[in-house]
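Researcher: If only I could read backbone structure tokens as easily as an amino acid sequence. Walk me, if you will, through where the backbone shape changes along the chain. I have put the entry right below:
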Amino acid sequence: MTSPMKSLVSDDARYLKSFELFLERSSEHQCMQNFIHSELPAILESIGNGTSHLNVIGVGSGSGEIDLEMLSELHLKHPGATVDNEVVEPNPGQLHHYKALVSKTPGLDYIKFNWNKMTSEEFEDEWKEKKMTKMADFIHMFQMLYYVKDPEATISFFRSLLNKNGKLLICLVSGKSGWRKLWQSYMGQLGHKRINQYVTTGHIKSLLDSKGVSYQSYELQSQMDITECFTEGDEKGELLLDFLTEVLHFSKTAPPELKAGVMELLHHPECSTDFENQVMFNNNIEVIVIDERS
């Protein structure tokens, strides 16, 4: 019998709603911001080789908050440089939010925004079709390699675009997070063949090691409050379950045994901890930084 379960990414509106709730219930943006303001400045300082113009590519830029914080740090390190910023984002809702954020944020005159409503694969195809020769000084991929068919090929393509002293920054869930245990246990029953959603930094580091590519990595501590998931029929809990499983309406469409197994695992010590009557999911993420021609 064909499973009635569908991928969450097949419904843009519900995906966006679940993602926004995830951000509310987790410390992910906060730990990213800490990284951006503490570790990233030193990484950005060495790019550009003293040039007065910098090229940046944001792959899966979402609604733009993280992008603008990174661009602000870039400007502080290279105050005299103009920036050409390629924004690659397929979700129309996210792209709309990004544009609105730019329109109300002062002091961005030094940045030219190029909007690309497309996937990273579509961007790659278009780039090659147009035979673009522009190189990038800074490329970032925040939480997007889950949605490409071939993470290795995607990383290889964007590495090939790095200018002298350029940096490629990849952010994914950590191989030490609760996500790893959840995916390791249930990816065969939850998986959707059209996306490679079960990839962690552990996979990417193994891949880079096998290719002899050097990198730096930074583990970022993060938690997500999933307490509402354990209240049957709770609307927000069901949204969070959709996000955790990447299954559209997981509570309503998953077979009872699968749902029971997932719920039990989410309470497992390798996934979550109990703290003051709250269930806190281990949402640790990791940043990998690759140098040009490393």
